[in-house]
Amino acid sequence: MTLLRSAWGRVRAFGHRVRNDGFTPKEFRSICVGALVLLSAIVVSGGLVRLTGSGLGCNDWPNCNDSKFIDVSNKHAAIEQVNRFVTFLVGFAVLLAALAAWFRRPRRRDLLVLGLVMLIGVPAQGIVGAIVVWTKLNPAWVQVHMVLSVVLIWASVMMLVRSGEGDRGRRVSAVVPRIRRRVRLLAVWAMIAVVAGTVVTGTGPHAGEALRDPDGICLAEGAARRFFGSECDINGNALVWATRVHSAVVWVTVAIALSLLWHLRRLRHDREVLDAPLTAWLVTALVQGGVGYLQYNTGLPVGLVAVHLAGAATLTGCTAWLWCATSKLSTPAAEMLDEAVAR
Description:
Blueprint (H helix, E strand, L loop, with lengths): L1 H20 L3 H27 L23 H29 L5 H26 L4 H25 L6 E4 L3 H27 L21 E2 L2 E2 L5 H29 L3 H30 L4 H24 L1 E4 L2 H10 L1
Antiparallel strand pairs: 1-4, 2-3
């Protein structure tokens, strides 16, 4: 009991301090890290729901089914319930990040805007998740679900990066214009590649399971929907062509990355600015490409597809980091002089 009172006392003291003095930049940055980790985790947990055929393990929302709010009586329901629990944790983390942006001292408009984007995005994810269930795993809505996750990861990375910057100054380019243009082009194509990957998933065998009769024959009325038909009438060529288009987009993205490296060869300052995020991007893209070809040539095993999903979330984060690195805060000389005098 004494321990509980002591813990409660520390919590109250912390809350009182935050209300009066706000979060410190270090505390705010820690909250941003937590939000980013959970937003990335929801991509993997949501993917596992799809990969294990558990999308309709709970056939209602927000209840699991007609009779129970929580039901873990079978594997599919349990997996879906775990995903919903992770979604709750994500919502809490994002709410905390948005509140921290408001209570951070000094308060900054850019962090408030990013916090608001995340605060709107999580409930939007819940609504889309409900529509996914109500439409019996319509692949287009599943794709929207993934795209929203990409947007939220991007916003959380921007919040994390900018939380480590100074609090005063004017935002300017950190690299020469042609490098900034190529980074933006790379970012656009990288996100097109991620979206194209969702089309492949929505076309392939992991788009959902069909209902079958005792003899194993697919029942049309219970067939899992795909971008090109259903499991009962799936066209194998559709998956091949969707994969080829995705692969072509990836190769275009890689070519842009190589072009960026070529243009950086004589720009020492710009190389130093982009070194960490670009290295992370290249390593992630290399691993992601290897996993992609391996999973395709081994019949799309669930484990490798899950790793590929985690790679997509990581690549999104690295791309957002690279994008952020192209700008910086520049403090006017007069303000720097004033700060030096004040010290």
